[in-house]
Amino acid sequence: MILKGFEELKTFLSEPRNIVIIGHRNPDGDAMGSTLGLLHYLEKKGHKPTVVVPNEYPDFLHWLPGSKNTYRFDWQNSQSKKAIEASEIIFLLDFNALHRVGNDMQNTLEKYPNDFAMIDHHQQPDDVKYMYSDVTICSTCQMVYQFIEMNNDLDLIDKDIATCLYTGIMTDTGSFRFRSTTSTTHRIIANLIDKGAKNDKIHNNVYDSNSYGRLLLLGQALTNLQILPEFKTAFITLTEDEKKKFDFQKGDTEGVVNYALSLKGIIFAAIFIEDKEQNIIKISFRSKGKFSVNKFARNHFDGGGHDNAAGGRFSGSIEEIIEEFKALLPKYKTELKTSYED
Q1: Comparing C-alpha atoms, which of 296, 290, 330 is closest to residue 314?
Q2: Distances (CA, A) of 276 to 247, 273, 317
Q3: Which letter does DSSP use for residue 178 in this model?
Q4: Among 168, 201, 292, 299, which has the minimal tally of Cβ within 10 Å of its Cβ?
């Protein structure tokens, strides 16, 4: 764990401040839950916080308390920049490096004259003045809870804060099934329920609000599933044409890679998604056991994340990434074979 400048930050926040809170590009449940959870907490402390996200986030997260007042940097550029310019500090949540917000927003943040405070659980964080980093914690939302606890403010957690934080912990732990879900996580979840988080409603809002197109897209993804049993590996592909065919919306591919990982005998899974807007192939990796997809993504696909969940990117076609991916696997055959051995 890295806890840097906490007491100084606590002193800085002892009087009302204009604050901007930022999550990563293509925000997921943990990014939105943590930014909005921190927003509500800071409001209760007398600050004037604003959440700015780089781009659109999934429709199944739009119900989160406070989301309607969030600025999108790509769409509400002038409002976003005014909020950033007026702020006295910027909180960076659920990402470890400025490039994770995208080029345009990164350029703005690199010119920011004041200090950053980072709360994040990804490996190899950038160095900023104030930092709370812990790669062993399952989600940034759990870290926001523990940040509130470090400030002796658990009594300030209300239904809105609890709902936001519960959502991020739930989504980043795969509904509490990943190895990073600890007994501490479950105790925190219990307290969030006691504080007003409606676990059944939150689950329904996130996982039981599929569009017809999203289910058809999932069917296409599963049709494209390929298995490489000699490497205990499976992967899925989705082209831009396939996404358009089923009216793709932001968030429609969330969690699809886990279907490949759910196969018996598979410990390494990937999904390769064509993204014409960014002119890249977006990649998500998942693994079981000791095989580190964080290292794999960093070494080969300009990415990273966690040991069992990471992302990356590739400049080229779907056919080219499949060829490159398959060519890499023999180098990791022993690691993949022994991933579950002590």
Answers
A1: 296
A2: 15, 10, 10
A3: S
A4: 201
